[in-house]
Fold this sequence. Notes:
Blueprint: H1 3-7, E1 11-14, E2 17-19, E3 25-29, E4 45-51, H2 60-69, E5 79-84, H3 90-109, H4 122-142
Antiparallel strand pairs: 1-2, 3-4, 4-5
Helix pairs in contact: 2-3
Amino acid sequence: xxxxxxxxPGIELAPSVWTDRAELRFGFSRSSGPGGQNVNKVNxxxxxxxxxxxxxxxxxxxxxxxxxAVANRMTLEGDLLMWADKERTQEANRQAxxxxxxxxxxAAQIEPKIRRKTKPSKSSKRKRVETKRARGEIxxxxxxxxxxxx
Length: 150
C-alpha cells in the first residue's frame, strides 16, 4: 500500500478519496443470485449506504459530477445506496459494492473536455464549393441533352 493511503485516517474509497469506516453502512438480505438452495437460507445480498458529504478528498466539481451520476441511487435520507448479489458470499458482494463505488468516484474525478466551437477556414469552404461544382459538371456531362451553357 502506498504512503498516502496509509496516512489516511479512514478507509480509501478511490485514489486520494477516503471516508471514516463508520460512514460505510452495510446491510445483508436474501439474494436471488447463484447458489441453488443456498440462496433461500443465507443472507448474501449486500447493500452499501454512504452519505456523499462523508467522502473526503473529492473536489467540489467532482462531487457535483458524482451527485449527478448517482442521482437515481440516492435515498430520501440523502444516502447513496449500492447493492450487489451476484456472488455467493457476503464478503465477495461487499467487495463488489466497494468496487462499484470506487469506479463511480474515479469516473467523477475525470474532468470532461470542454467542447469549443470551430469554424471552417476560407480555403476549406472554397475547396468544398469547387468540389461540388466539379461534381456537378461531371453529372451534367452525362445527360443526353445539351446544357444551358452551350
